[in-house]
Design goal:
The chain contains 10 helices and 9 strands. By secondary structure, the chain is α/β, with parallel strands linked by helices. InterPro entries: EAL_dom (IPR001633), EAL_sf (IPR035919).
Length: 277
Amino acid sequence: MILWNKGRKVNERIVSTSSFTANNIEDISLDSYLMSISQVSGLRFQPIVFLNNGQVIAHEVLSAISGDPALFFSSLCEELHLAIFLWQLEEVRHLPESCWFNLPVAVFSEPYLISELIAAGPAMENISIELQDPENIQHLNPLQFNRLRSGVRRLQQHGWNIILDDLTSTCAPYLNENDFKFAAVKFDRTELRGNPDLEQQIHHARSLSSVIVLEGIETAEDLKIANTCKADAGQGFLWPERKVNCYVPEVVARRALLWGQRLEHIRKQRVAVNAHL
């Protein structure tokens, strides 16, 4: 995944509670959310291609950002991630092709947001969700890890295809087949070059999924490496992306604000309960 993996460390937000009151969060947070969504100028569609025949099997859908992508994604809270995700779904709902979208560990680890996602509508066969930042799994405490695993399984039970994005040799030890199964596993672009163990790691990753995608393919040499390592599919600038201009409506920010307010209340309740244990 190229852009949508720049979110904050998951534990910074999961265990925090805001000092804002219910009265002033409306004034402060809505403006912040509106400022964030105003930076989205469209959607990018990056093809994911079977290596054996060149067939496009899906497109990863990313937000096109008018400003600094790293700064933008690092500033997003999980409720805004989810609100933008649902907006993206609406924008592509009419398309017949398969589309893969991104959500961070922080969303998968929050039971309330998983419930909101399930309540938003039924899963679609041509839509998959990428767990985009597995490097953040190492920052979870046991309770948060259980919530992550539960979130993935709840969505799968409701028909969602879940894909593991950006797998690296660093985060691989935190994942095993006893905890997770995925519709596909995508190796991070940094693994393509200079990793002598890539073929072996791809083989091991098949315990998580039978479909392996290698990201970062930009040249014929990259494509050769991907085939040599026995990946099933590839993604990268070797295959041109397309862009659709569109803008996020204000209702997305207001939806995120509502979820944020509810999350503040839920997390304060959790802190109160833990304080009495």
